[in-house]
Amino acid sequence: MKLEGSALRLTIFVGESDSWHHKPLYHEIVRRAHAAGLAGASVIRGIEGFGASSRIHTSRILSLSQDLPLAVVIVDAADKVRAFLPQLDELVTEGLVIIDPVEVIRYVGRSADGPGTPEGGR
C-alpha cells in the first residue's frame, strides 16, 4: 500500500479498562481498523491522565493504575479515515475522538522477503 502526502491522523483516547463484549476496547478498534483496510494502527499507553470525568488515572498509585489512558492512532487517506468513523460511533461510548491533518513523509513496511527488507525486494 502506498501512502504519502496529505492524510488524516485519527486518534481515539479511551481507558485501558474500557471493553467491548468483554474484550479490551482498544483491541476491537485495532481489529476493525485492520478489517477496514486502513494503513495501520498503534496503541499507546499513557502513564497518567484524566478526561471528562476529571478523575486522574496514574501508574504511580496502584489502585488507579487499572484504568490508564490509551491512545489508538491511525493514519490514512482522508476518505478511508472518514469511512471508518461510523464504527467508532458504535464502539466509543466514553472517550475522545479527534482528527488532525498530517503530511506523510514516509510509509514503508516489510516485504515477504523478511524483516528489514524494504517492500519491492533489494
Description:
The protein is α+β, with helices and mostly antiparallel strands and 122 residues long. The chain contains 2 helices and 10 strands. It has helices spanning 25-35, 78-91, and strands at 5-15, 19-20, 23-24, 41-45, 48-49, 57-58, 69-76, 96-104, 110-111, 114-118. Strand 9 and strand 10 form a beta hairpin. Helix 1 (25-35) runs antiparallel to helix 2. The model has no long low-confidence stretch (mean pLDDT 86).
Intertermini distance: 18 Å
Shape: globular
- Portion in helices: 10-25%
Q: How many individual helices? A: 2
Number of strands: 10
Strand order of the largest sheet: 4-7-1-8
* H and E string: EEEHEEEEHEEE
Primary descriptors:
39% strand, four-stranded antiparallel sheet, single chain, 122 residues, alpha+beta, two-stranded antiparallel sheet
Give the gist of this structure.
By secondary structure, this protein is of the alpha+beta class. The protein is built from 2 helices and 10 strands; from the N terminus they run βββαββββαβββ.
